[in-house]
Amino acid sequence: MTILVGYLPTPEGEAAVDAGLREGALRSERVVIVNSPRRGAPVDEHKIDDDASAALLARARAAGVDAEVRQPLHDDDLPETFEALVKETGGTLIVIGLRHRSLVGKFILGSEAQRILMEASVPVLTVKAPR
């Protein structure tokens, strides 16, 4: 049994990790923190380094949760990456952070978060960063 947490080094990503670790402690489940850089991108400012990964694992230890950080590469289908991880890890919950977007932005760009919500085979917990 595993909880998957979508993580980017943003306030929304931090909120997702906090919520995911709380859920992991509450359910006595393992947490996999997913930082998924886009395949082929020459530079990805959202890809975390070893120090950031170690800091996330320290937060998990402090919360009393067994955790790991994974960085699977994805093409243009992040929801598919999450679904594959659900199957591989026995995932029971996905936790993601949501950011505010305008209606036009949602219409033109679509939303990976929306697709995760609609297509995931397990429940999805969404959180917002504190203002």
From TrEMBL:
InterPro entries: Rossmann-like_a/b/a_fold, Universal_stress_UspA, UspA. Belongs to the universal stress protein A family. This is Nucleotide-binding universal stress UspA family protein. Residues 2-128 form the UspA domain. It comes from Nonomuraea jabiensis. Pfam families: Usp. It comes from the Bacteria.
